[in-house]
Write a structure and sequence with these properties.
Layout lengths: L3 E4 L2 E3 L5 E7 L8 E7 L6 E7 L5 E3 L7 E6 L4 E6 L8 E8 L15 E2 L3 E5 L2
Parallel strand pairs: 2-11
Antiparallel strand pairs: 1-3, 3-8, 4-5, 4-9, 5-6, 7-8, 9-10, 9-11
Length: about 130
């Protein structure tokens, strides 16, 4: 069973930055897509960003375009989410997710992913 371990969350002021990391415990695990989702209190989990592992192609939710950047380190089986110009509405638990296969389209639905991390809290507040 592959485990995804997130780190990097915390409390930051509006306009600040944070970088989240997510590492897959099994380096032999074949990743096709890795994504970040978030869930705010009382809201459904929503897609944030994804990266296709081999090509490096990325996709972002409209709400974070131009502020967040997703990247990956293939050798470390690690994905990063650089979050800049943070807003209070970015407050949520952020989860990374991994899919073993890619069949086309944008993997923006959580049912498309096979493995999930436990989540890391991001709080944006003054």
């Amino acid at each position: 069973q592959v485990q995804l371990v997130e780190s990097g969350g915390g409390l930051v002021q509006p306009g600040g930055s944070l970088r989240l990391s997510c590492a897959a415990s099994d380096r032999t695990f074949s990743i096709a897509v890795m994504g970040w989702f978030r869930q705010a209190p009382g809201k459904e989990r929503e897609f944030v960003a994804l990266v296709r592992w081999n090509s490096g192609i990325t996709h972002y939710a409209d709400s974070v375009k131009g502020r967040f950047g997703i990247s990956r380190d293939n050798a470390k089986n690690t994905v990063y989410l650089q979050m800049n110009s943070l807003k209070p509405e970015d407050t949520a638990v952020y989860h990374c997710a991994a899919s073993k296969a890619y069949y086309g389209g944008v993997y923006s639905l959580d049912r498309m992913y096979d493995y999930w991390g436990q989540g890391t809290q991001v709080t944006v507040s003054s």
